[in-house]
């Protein structure tokens, strides 16, 4: 039997998780050859905290990652009601509580580098190829030929673009596709197809040691419980607080990002927020929802497929769900070089509508946290006379946008995909 050669572009969370999932499922179908091509010469630890919802945790358990991950978690994930966010209005000298978001199982926070290190430890020797930056690819009759900037080439029967928000694979993939599926400013037309666009948001991200925050602001709520918007939550194993402070400019949403990226927090803001500032700043990029995540022998996963704003805490989780479904299909007994295009179609049919829905929900949730909503048109930053009851109704709507997290199941999606393959 011919070996099914899988080329993964990118050694981030989605690429490494796909590689590991294929190994876990390999006993079902051992004829897979997997290669990961990474542009960097050294894998860096970019990023900060990530959310692991119960639906994501169940996948990680299935992939045998429970034991190493538990060493870094504050408690064993479960389905008990747990506080996710304490929502407060803080753009005034004296902030006040709006409501709490409590969900089944809550969410577990983990530093991105922790998951990356665990996945790297599982990686077979010789699979990861560093300093191999993809320049282009060409689809042939029964395979895909990869071209790298160093002049080398490689072939595979399935190319997986796991190369992030600025994906080279996606830029080639979407040529000729219609992307404009989102009611955002016409400035989106300035972007080339496949390019990430600016969400209009700057995120000030960083990690503050517990000890430093305790010294600066004793008993700050972020050491034990999260607040919003600034978003703060503890990473107990790291003994740090993860911070994302957000400044949004709605009129810039969908534009090409340019110019200075630095702003400063007003000294009149809530005193608790002041002790969390002093972090790195990022222009938050996102994608216009793609029409499809796969075509022929090329598929996109993770941020390459659906790079989204962080307002659903779902970017990493959606990437893991992508590769869980894809690995289940590729490891099936019906998987072979001739069925790869069918597997590609099924992956797209299952994952594209789900991930794009979450991408759109993240955008909508971001607007709510910035009080960009019907009935709030006249509210300005720092307004202290917004009725608390009105805010409670608004943020109850925000919580409703998270219901998919505990109402739906990635396992159901995987089983639907398998059933489609077996038809």
UniProtKB/TrEMBL annotation:
UniProt keyword Cytoplasm, yes or no: no
Locate the FAD-binding domain: which residues? 4-173, 275-360
Q: Output the Gene3D superfamilies linked to this UniProt entry.
A: FAD/NAD(P)-binding domain (3.50.50.60)
Question: Where, if anywhere, are coiled coils annotated?
Answer: none
Superkingdom as given in the UniProt entry:
Eukaryota
UniProtKB keywords: FAD, Flavoprotein, Oxidoreductase
Pfam families noted in UniProt: FAD_binding_3
**A Gene Ontology molecular-function term?**
FAD binding
One GO process term, biological-process aspect: secondary metabolite biosynthetic process
Name the PANTHER family on file: FAD-BINDING DOMAIN-CONTAINING PROTEIN-RELATED, HYDROXYLASE, PUTATIVE (AFU_ORTHOLOGUE AFUA_3G01460)-RELATED
What is the name of this protein? Salicylate hydroxylase
């Amino acid at each position: 039997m011919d070996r099914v050669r899988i080329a993964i572009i990118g050694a981030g969370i989605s690429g490494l998780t796909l590689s590991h999932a294929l190994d876990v499922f390999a006993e079902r179908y051992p004829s897979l050859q997997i290669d990961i091509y990474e542009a960097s010469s050294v894998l860096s630890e970019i990023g900060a905290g990530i959310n692991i919802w119960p639906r994501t945790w169940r996948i990680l358990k299935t992939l045998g990652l429970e034991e190493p991950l538990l060493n870094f978690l504050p408690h064993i994930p479960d389905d008990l009601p747990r506080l996710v966010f304490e929502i407060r209005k803080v753009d005034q000298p004296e902030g006040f509580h709006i409501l709490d978001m409590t969900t089944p199982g809550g969410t577990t926070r983990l530093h991105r580098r922790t998951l990356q290190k665990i996945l790297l430890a599982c990686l077979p020797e010789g699979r990861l190829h560093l300093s191999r930056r993809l320049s282009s690819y060409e689809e042939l009759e029964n395979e895909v030929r990869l071209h790298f900037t160093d002049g080398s080439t490689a072939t595979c029967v399935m190319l997986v673009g796991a190369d992030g928000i600025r994906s080279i694979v996606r830029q080639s993939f979407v040529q000729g596709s219609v992307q404009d599926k989102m009611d955002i400013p016409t400035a989106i037309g300035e972007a080339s197809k496949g390019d990430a666009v600016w969400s209009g948001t700057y995120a000030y991200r960083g990690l503050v040691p517990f000890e430093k925050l305790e010294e600066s602001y004793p008993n700050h709520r972020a050491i034990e419980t999260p607040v919003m918007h600034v978003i703060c939550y503890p990473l107990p194993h790291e003994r740090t607080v993860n911070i994302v402070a957000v400044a949004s400019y709605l009129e810039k949403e969908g534009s090409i990002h340019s110019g200075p990226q630095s702003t400063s927090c007003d000294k009149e803001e809530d005193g608790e927020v002041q002790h969390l500032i002093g972090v790195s700043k990022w222009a938050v990029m996102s994608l216009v929802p793609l029409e499809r995540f796969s075509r022929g022998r090329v598929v996109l996963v993770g941020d390459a497929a659906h790079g989204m704003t962080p307002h659903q805490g779902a970017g990493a989780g959606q990437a893991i769900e992508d590769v869980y479904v894809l690995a289940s299909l590729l490891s099936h007994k019906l998987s072979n070089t001739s069925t790869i295009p069918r597997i590609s179609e099924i992956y797209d049919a299952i994952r594209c509508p789900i991930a794009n829905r979450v991408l759109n929900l993240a955008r909508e949730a971001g607007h709510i946290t910035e009080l960009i909503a019907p009935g709030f048109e006249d509210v300005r930053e720092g307004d202290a006379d917004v009725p608390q009851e009105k805010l409670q109704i608004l943020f109850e709507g925000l919580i409703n946008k998270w219901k998919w997290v505990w109402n739906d199941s990635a396992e159901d999606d995987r089983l639907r995909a398998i059933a489609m393959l077996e038809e």
